[in-house]
Structure to design on (230 residues):
């Protein structure tokens, strides 16, 4: 029998608000897992959101990969957070689909490598529906185009997660119609000399966000063998 995963589209929300919401949902699940009587009552969730412009740096990220000062960020109406996920520096902003799965991996598979590869597969399947060949880059998380061709490598989806008692938070950020100029002020994901791209840039046209979300939801259900509810 397939697991249910409760879906919420939060629309445009501040990064801090959604980070706090994720922490609350994660704590609810981990608290349940501490009690043998309620271990099976954990709730799987998938959150979709767009954020106002913000840079986030992972817990072990290198601050030198932020190439813009705090005052300049403020002038540009941007925020910055040093957060508790894996990975380095990335950007979130309008017209970028951010997905935060809050999953109890005890109900799926307790393997973080499998989990990250599965998230990547959701995006790879979605890109294929637009005629694009998404791929993995050896030793790097996320989804790329032409990762094996020097000078043509370009990242379209960044990923970074946290996992506590096999409950996940944080997730993926897929550039849809994202303003890629924001990436000029960071070393994206701490990876030097590689490009960042978007569906809009690759296709030469804007992609309707609602259309894209439905494709990602469908592929999430396929890859994780789950049913999205809500």
């Amino acid at each position: 029998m397939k697991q249910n995963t409760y879906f919420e589209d939060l629309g445009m929300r501040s990064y801090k608000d959604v980070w706090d919401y994720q922490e609350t949902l994660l704590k609810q699940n981990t608290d349940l897992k501490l009690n043998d009587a309620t271990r099976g009552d954990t709730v799987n969730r998938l959150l979709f959101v767009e954020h106002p412009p913000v840079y986030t740096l992972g817990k072990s990220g290198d601050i030198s990969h932020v190439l813009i000062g705090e005052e300049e960020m403020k002038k540009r109406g941007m925020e910055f957070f040093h957060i508790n996920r894996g990975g380095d520096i990335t950007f979130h902003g309008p017209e970028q689909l951010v997905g935060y799965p809050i999953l109890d991996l005890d109900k799926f598979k307790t393997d973080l490598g499998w989990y990250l590869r599965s998230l990547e597969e959701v995006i790879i399947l979605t890109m294929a529906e637009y005629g694009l060949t998404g791929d993995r880059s050896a030793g790097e998380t996320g989804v790329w185009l032409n990762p094996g061709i020097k000078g043509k490598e370009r990242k379209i989806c960044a990923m970074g997660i946290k996992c506590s008692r096999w409950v996940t938070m944080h997730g993926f950020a897929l550039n849809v119609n994202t303003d890629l100029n924001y990436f000029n002020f960071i070393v994206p994901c701490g990876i030097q000399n590689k490009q960042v791209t978007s569906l809009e840039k690759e296709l030469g046209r804007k992609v309707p966000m609602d259309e894209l979300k439905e494709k990602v939801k469908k592929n999430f259900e396929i890859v994780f063998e789950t049913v999205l509810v809500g």
